[in-house]
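Recap from last week: sequence in, structure out.
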Amino acid sequence: MVRTGGRSSLREEQRRLAAILAADVAGYSRLMAADESGTLGRLRRLRANVFEPKIARFHGRIVGSAGDSLLIEFGSAVNAVQCAIELQRELGGENAGLPENRRMAFRMGVNLGDVIVEDDTIYGDGVNIAARLEKLAEPGGVCIGRAIYDQVRGKLEYLYTDIGEQRVHNIAEPVRAYRVMSIDLSPTSSSVPSVKDALPLSNRPSIAVLPFTNMSGDPEQEYFSDGITEDIITDLSKVGALPVTARNTTFALKGKSMDVSEAARQLRVSHVLEGSVRKAGGRVRITAQLIDGTSGHHVWAERYDRDLDDIFALQDEIARAIVDALKIRLMPGEYAAIGKRTTGNVEAYQYYLMGRQHFLRLGRRNHLSARRLYQRALEIDPEYALARAGLALAEGMLLRSGDPSAKLVTLSAEAERALALDSTLAEAHVAHAMAQFQKEQIELAGAACRRAIALDPDLYEAHRTLGDVLRMERKFAEAAAAYEKAAEVDRNSYGAMCMLWDCRKTLGEEEEAHRLSGELLTRIEKAMQLYPDDGAAYSYGCYVLHNLGLDERALQWAERAITIDPEDYNSHYNVACFLAAIGAVEKAIDTLEHCVPQLGLQQVHWMAQDVDMNSLRDHPRYRALMERLEVSLAKAEGQSGSGIEGWPSGA
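Predicted structure tokens:
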């Protein structure tokens, strides 16, 4: 499939994938018969004081309520289950001091499915199955469907009991159901582990640095607070005795309402660093506090008011203060390593941070912006190794998307210059790997990726590019492992997960591929919300929707992918894969004839092993296209651009 890197005018029906939590009171009729006004009053209080705050915390919304029943929609399977579990814990505490006949115990069911949206209400089998799962739950318990189980297994460490295929009312096919067994409803219960016990904290000092809050009053300054956070993570990662949670993992929590102790449990660290950044003119204020993840108590806190020119020294000071507070002894060389910077110019540093912010966003246009900003940083400081590596990576991503302005010679030269400036930069080795990959020097590309991973095991681009290398070598199982690691490193990115899904399909692992579909679609839809102009998300998503049987919506996404950015030729290729899958052969070949020449000679080899091309291989037009491309390969060997010689741009 996919190589990574229609709009309806009718309002009649909107669909989306959602996690649905259904809840109602066990024995509600009995409670009402015994004390109607008291039961209604208590139900209202529980909704206002327990349900609504908890639902808001996990980014859900109430979409239905009738009597004792609630229907809640979430954009994330993990959030839905975590919310259900925490609701049951709190409700268990509410019941603890009450006699048995006055306890209000809820059953809860959680399902992941396609829903029909109408105004503020949702309908469909996805909703109906959630309601049926709720009936299978014990009072005070949670029952989840197979799709939810597949999403939360390995992410939420609770105990799950498989209760098998269940025939439920008005649902044609049996529903696979699981009971969640780790909810400690009673403060004195010792029969099951509590939520707190489910995620033990580390016994030795370890730390997660949460994204610092931008207090500048200007959203455009977000790049600066994010950059400060990243640099503190990088500094602390140089201390061998201190495990540090990867940047992509902690940034997945950005914007979420979560207390520090809960964050520590989720991230399995002993301590959490949080803070804020206020930048105004030539001054910067940074507040930081180091918090014990078990007790929630402050271990260390400080506020710094400095000139912006002192930002590098300030970052060093914060990192060293944290190390001192954790009573960690630095090894020889670590003290100096914390203070190592690849530039001393604050203006160049700010341009680099802005470029980095765009690079981490998705889509060709953001990579164009990143390239421009990195170039500006290098105009100020030509010896800035990290900006040089960033420029090479941006060029590599633009080559991957088939951007007409991207040049292989530029990627190769900038990668070499970055390595010459600092051979310990993992990013420089990844850029070198991208260049070798484009040159079809697959062994050299793989070696460069592995060197990058040795230098920085948490670098997404290194694992992702290694996956591409292994896939080109037809080592699909090994490629899947590399893509899986990349998807784990960056839980917000969909690109590597899409390639993992593709490898599973290529290996014939259809059940595993189907399991991945829900999480992949969740990541894609989240990216669409964050970056509405990311055509790549729509191009990946249309194929996933097709595999879930949602072809009408998939066609709309395919049209959107092409119209958002007509020059993102990689997205066009993904759409061609989708069109081939639905049998729109002529349209698929039209799209291939348009995009493949711009993607370069490496794309021809990619297509040769892409199972999504199988339905086209015997078509005369496809064979003619491949023959023309293969003839052009020899001529293309000396090309510095991304296109194939002899083909007009946009052909």
